[in-house]
Amino acid sequence: MTAHPIVLDSDPGIDDALALQYLLGTGLWDLKAYTSVGGNLPADVTYRNARALARAVRIDTDVPVHHGAGRPLSRLPYKAASDFHGPAGLGHEALPDSAAAHPAESSAQALLRLSRDYEGELTVCATGPLTNVAIALLEDPAFAHRVKRLVFMGGAAQVPGNVTPVAEFNIWTDPDAAEVVVSSGIPFTMVDLDASHRWLFGSADLAALEAAGAGTALAVRLLRVYMDAYRRHGGGDACPLHDPLAVGVCADESFITAAEGAVIVECASELTRGKTVFVPSAAERAYYTESPSLTARARSTGRVALGPGPRNFTKDFVATLPLWPAVG
Ligand SMILES: [Ca+2]
């Protein structure tokens, strides 16, 4: 079986950490770079966390970790989502840094180079704000046509948001970047809250990972912190698997139910900042006539998750994670 080239663009973050270990566990991917981006925490911290995680999953001698953009395209610098991810983003962990050299290329530069090296083959999985991907597109719009597919975790097509009534965190954090990306013509799949809030990880799943041994001990500690955070925020005894789900969908869309359509990101209003307006390709415009600009904009379409799919993602996650043991 050939492993396909992929870049994981991430703002670790607990579920980002789980997404990395899950990606390696699938055995389906040849991870060409782990590009960090600010989001859950400022860019310096997510870079440090990404390096430490690369070491924990024993890839740091093979896979370069890159430093991401220092701030969103046109907003104030990233703030910390420590409420969910712990003070430094990875629960209560103090993982040692990797001894790997610091690459000179930024995350966006690495994305551009790899899109040329693996033209037509490269999958990009983004599990943080879309700043790096937007910078790559602004630098070279043809990036959109060299990438095989971008699968990103973010947005809320037909459900409420998780950072405001209408916006999901990754898109809200850098809505301008998200709009650059989803209007670029890049083949994208949006793994949004419509799907990720439906694949929950509960205490029986945690017990299964605990029983899997030392290779999942780090994941179990991280998941405990994450589940506690969701409990505090009224989520009950389970947490969503946002970022791992995006990785899962890179290989198999049947983890979600998706429809084709345009996504337009609200960038002007503060009240609805980062709302992802979904315009299904099959929509009936029963009560309005589309403006020419909306018709033109709605030509950039992608796959948009509207709910969970027939294949059980939580089950796959629990079975796959132990296949790539982590240390620490
Ligand atoms: Ca993330």
What features would you describe in this structure?
The chain has one domain: Inosine-uridine Nucleoside N-ribohydrolase, Chain A, CATH 3.90.245. Helix content is 37%, strand content 18%. The protein is built from 14 helices and eleven strands. Helix 1 packs parallel to helix 12 (242-251). The two termini are 30 Å apart. The relative contact order is 0.16.
Which helices and strands occur, and which strands form pairs?
Blueprint: E1 4-10, H1 14-26, E2 29-36, H2 43-56, E3 65-66, H3 82-85, H4 107-117, E4 123-126, H5 131-139, H6 143-146, E5 149-153, H7 169-173, H8 175-182, E6 188-191, H9 193-196, E7 200-202, H10 203-211, H11 217-232, E8 238-240, H12 242-251, E9 256-265, E10 276-280, H13 292-297, E11 302-308, H14 313-320
This protein binds calcium ion (CA).
Calcium ion is lined by residues 11, 13, 15-16, 40, 127-128, 243.
GO biological process, one term: purine nucleoside catabolic process
Protein name: Nucleoside hydrolase
Keywords: Glycosidase, Hydrolase
Order of helices and strands: EHEHEHHEHHEHHEHEHHEHEEHEH
Tally of extended strands?
11
From the 3D coordinates, which CATH architecture would you assign?
Alpha-Beta Complex
| Major sheet strand order | 3-2-1-4-5-6-11-9-10
InterPro entries: Inosine/uridine_hydrolase_dom, IUNH, Ribo_hydro-like
GO molecular function: purine nucleosidase activity
Protein name: Nucleoside hydrolase
Organism: Streptomyces scabichelini
